[in-house]
Specification:
By secondary structure, the protein is mostly helical. The chain has 18 helices and four strands.
Length: about 450
């Protein structure tokens, strides 16, 4: 009976306004009923860690966020923070001491709203327990260096220098020159320029208050814990909104024109079969001939139920799916088949963070059709805006393509067994409902007396 009432993960609508803890809590509540419909093999962590196969791999998840959901910057930032945390933890202890873990005592008066007359606390910044101004250069990892020279010797700061290093700026806006000696500071500046600043290429949907809070934290330390507030928000959004929607969308193995055409064919089959049954009923033909309507009526109802959930039974039987529009070139051949093979492998740090070498292809593609550009621009931390895909050639070709040509495009094999199990439940559900509805109708049709009108 559970198969009869099986439901896909619910579609979780985006909430208006910037991301915050309140919206994340609503996402979590709405996703609670969808978790049981998602098998463990397709969990968020498995997708992120490269343990799933196409069309449920990490590149497929990124494609969905870029072309369908329009919020790929969340996943791009999340992947970067994971890799950044590993990179920071691999630093020598002497270097990591330059960027202590974020604590509330580091908050500066400008955003901390310190009471009048209250002495602001200085951010904790010391190499050891001694009150010295010794620090280390990022380029030399564990060698102490001076602020004004490259000589490897301890340096005692003046009062003014200590104020700068401690991040206590007298300005209202955060002072981005503070703590410039801390490890990975240049990478933090690039992250702020690409994800935090308003109007940046991959701007995160954050409130002004959260932006200023993060910039204030990064003014004091480059420790990964400085990003905790927005990482928690983004992680909850990806897990409870983006991931369930991605699973639901991936269950559809046909594009929209094909699903609409399938529904039309199924309705026509049902109508024609009903008309034939009525004609047989009012004729002098033996009543048992009416049983011949059963397979056609069953076929129509089963396809109506399956297509309602975006599934083509024929493609399912062949263990295939239709290519996505961005996977096609002008000659209807699938793009990136060589690049797609990489999606089954666990992602390595260079694969996520930096562009990989160009992948040779059999055909000559434009820049936007080459395997290396397709994957690297989306999965790399720093790249073009995610909103520029409408300028790519595949988009123009697809939008100008006649609808009947969208019904015949190249098919790809479904490799992920977890997705096959979910699709199998929908097909069984369609088969059962078709059987439950068809058999009583045929019994009634056969039981009707002959009309003998002709």
């Amino acid at each position: 009976m559970s198969v009869l009432f099986y439901k896909r993960p619910d579609h979780i609508e985006k909430l208006d306004g910037p991301l915050n803890s309140s919206s994340c809590q609503k996402y979590s509540e709405r996703a609670a009923c969808s978790r049981a419909a998602i098998p463990e093999s397709l969990s968020f962590d498995n997708v992120i860690n490269g343990k799933t196969l196409p069309p449920m791999s990490l590149p497929d998840f990124m494609d969905y966020l870029v072309y369908i959901s329009y919020d790929a910057e969340n996943l791009q930032f999340y992947l970067w923070h994971q890799e950044y945390t590993k990179k920071f933890d691999a630093l020598p202890e002497a270097v990591k001491c330059l960027s202590p873990k974020w604590e509330a005592s580091m908050q500066a008066p400008s955003l901390g709203r310190a009471a009048a007359g209250r002495t602001p606390q200085r951010a904790a910044f010391s190499l050891d327990t001694k009150e010295t101004g010794t620090f280390y250069n990022d380029a030399t990892d564990d060698s102490p260096t001076s602020a004004t020279s490259n000589a490897h010797s301890p340096h005692t700061f003046t009062k003014e220098q200590e104020l700068v290093i401690s991040g206590m700026s007298t300005k209202d806006e955060p002072d981005w020159e503070a703590f410039s000696i801390q490890p990975l500071r240049d990478e933090i500046r690039r992250i702020v320029a690409n994800y935090i600043e308003p109007g940046s290429d991959r701007e995160l949907n954050l409130s002004h208050r959260d932006r200023q809070n993060i910039k204030q934290r990064l003014q004091h330390t480059t420790h990964p814990s400085a990003f905790t507030p927005i990482v928690d928000i983004i992680s909850m959004t990806l897990r409870n909104q983006s991931h369930p929607n991605f699973i639901r969308w991936s269950m559809c193995n046909g594009n929209r024109p094909r699903v609409i055409a399938l529904r039309g064919i199924a309705v026509c089959v049902i109508l024609v079969t009903t008309a034939v049954g009525v004609i047989l009923a009012v004729s002098h033909v033996a009543r048992w001939y009416r049983i011949l309507c059963l397979p056609f009526l069953w076929f129509g109802i089963a396809n109506i139920v399956a297509s309602y959930k975006g599934l083509c039974i024929l493609l399912y039987r062949r263990n295939t799916r239709e290519s996505r529009p961005w996977e096609l070139d002008g000659s209807d051949t699938t793009l990136l088949e060589e690049g797609r093979a990489r999606s089954s492998l666990p992602p390595t740090p260079p694969y996520i963070r930096t562009p990989t070498p160009s992948v040779p292809s059999v055909k000559t593609y434009d820049r936007e059709f080459s395997p290396s550009s397709f994957f690297d621009d989306r999965l790399s931390t720093f790249g073009p805006s995610n909103k520029n895909f409408r300028e790519e050639q595949w988009y123009r070709r697809w939008t100008h393509r006649p609808w009947w040509r969208k019904l015949r495009i190249k098919k790809l094999k479904v490799q992920e067994e977890g997705l096959r199990l979910m699709q199998n439940k929908i097909v069984k559900q369609a088969d059962w409902w078709a059987t439950i509805v068809t058999i009583p109708l045929i019994i009634v049709l056969v039981a009707l007396p002959k009309g003998n009108f002709f």
